[in-house]
């Protein structure tokens, strides 16, 4: 989520993640200072875009890596 998010109020995202954590759920919340929704599409070469994309990729790969290590 970017700190300059146009689609959602930052406080709502933080409150939603907090509610998940309090209920025992798992969530990851990244707030990218100065970012806005779609920044990685608008400026894909920007360092901030690359950092956000890398974090998202790591998060998406995590369940796959965990299931692979359980199988071995």
Largest sheet: none
**Helix-strand category:** mainly alpha
User: Can you count the helices?
Assistant: 3
How far is the first residue's CA from the last residue's CA? 35 Å
Oligomer: single chain
Shape, principal axes of CA atoms: flat
When the domains are counted, the total is: 1
In the predicted model, the low-confidence regions spanning at least 5 consecutive residues are none
The proportion of strand residues reads: under 5%
Number of strands: 0
Rounded average pLDDT: 81
The residue fraction in helices comes out at 55-70%
Order of helices and strands: HHH
Return Rg in Å: 15 Å
How would you describe this structure to a colleague?
This protein has one domain. By secondary structure, it is mostly helical. It has helices at residues 10-22, 39-42, 47-71. The chain is flat and about 35 Å long. It starts with 9 loop residues before the first helix and ends with a helix.
Comma- or semicolon-separated keywords:
72 residues, mainly alpha, 3 helices
Structure described in brief:
The protein has 72 residues and is mainly alpha-helical. The protein has helices at residues 10-22, 39-42, 47-71. The radius of gyration is 15 Å and the shape is flat.
Secondary structure elements and pairings:
Elements lengths: L9 H13 L16 H4 L4 H25 L1
């Amino acid at each position: 989520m970017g700190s300059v998010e146009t689609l959602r109020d930052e406080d709502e995202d933080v409150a939603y993640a907090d509610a998940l954590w309090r209920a025992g759920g798992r969530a990851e919340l990244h707030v990218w200072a100065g970012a806005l929704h779609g920044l990685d599409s608008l400026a894909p070469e920007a360092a901030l875009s690359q950092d956000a994309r890398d974090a998202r990729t790591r998060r998406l790969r995590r369940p796959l890596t965990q299931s692979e290590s359980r199988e071995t």
